[in-house]
Amino acid sequence: MTPDNSQIKLAFKNQTIFLTGATGFVGKVMIAKLLTDCEDIKKIYMLLRSKKGKNSEQRFEEIFEQPCFEFLKSKSSNWKEKVSLVEGDCEEPLLGISDDNLKMLKNEVNFVIHLAANVRFDQSLKKAANNVKCTADLLELSKGIANLKVACFYIYF
Asked: At what angle do helices 130-143 and 99-108 cross, to 10 degrees?
C-alpha cells in the first residue's frame, strides 16, 4: 500500500487518466496498481477494440477477471465505477475514437498513459509502423486536451 502522503497518490487525486494498452500485461498491472493505491483517482478511461470474435465490452469485463485484481475486489466495492471503456483501435486514424468520446477525453483527461503496441516480431514493416502511427495520433490528440498535466508514451519496437 502506498502511504497517504505519497507523491504518486497526491498527483492522481481527483484526476482522470486515458490509458491505451489496457489488455496487455503492463496495462492490467498499471490499472490494478492505480486503483489499489490511488483510491482518490477520479476516472480511468481505457481504449479497447474488438478482437478475436469478442467486442470491446466483453474484453473490458475480461480484464478484471485477472489475478492482479483479486486484492482490489476484496478491498473495495466501488472501484469499478472509476473505470470506463472508450471504444477505439490504435490501427485506425485518430485511434478510431468517436467524435463524442474525443470531445469528452479532451475535456476530462489530465494524464495520458500510452502502453499499446503490437509486439509481434514476425510482422511486416508496414504493420509494425502502426506503433509509430498510433503514437503520433495520440500525441496529436493530447495537444487538444484542455487540462493535460502529463503524457507518458512507452514505445515498443
From this structure: 60
Residue 110's CATH number: 3.40.50.720
Q: Which residues contact 43 (CB under 8 A, 6 or more apart)?
A: 16, 17, 82, 83, 84, 108
% of residues, the chain, pLDDT over 90: 64
Q: 3-class DSSP state for residue 57?
A: helix
C-alpha 13/C-alpha 4 separation (Å) is: 11
Asked whether residue 1 is assigned to any structural domain, the reply reads: no
Q: How confident is the model at residue 78 (pLDDT cuts 50, 70, 90)?
A: confident
- pLDDT tens per residue across span 6-17: 899 999 999 999
Helix (H, G, I), strand (E, B) or coil at 154: coil
Residue 51 CA to residue 59 CA, distance in Å, equals 8
Contact 113, 30 (CB under 8 A): yes
Provide the strand spans (E) within the chain: 16-20, 43-48, 83-87, 111-114, 150-153
Q: Residue 112 is part of which domain span?
A: 7-153
pTM metric for this prediction? 0.90
Mean pLDDT rounded to a whole number for the chain: 90
146 lies in some domain: yes
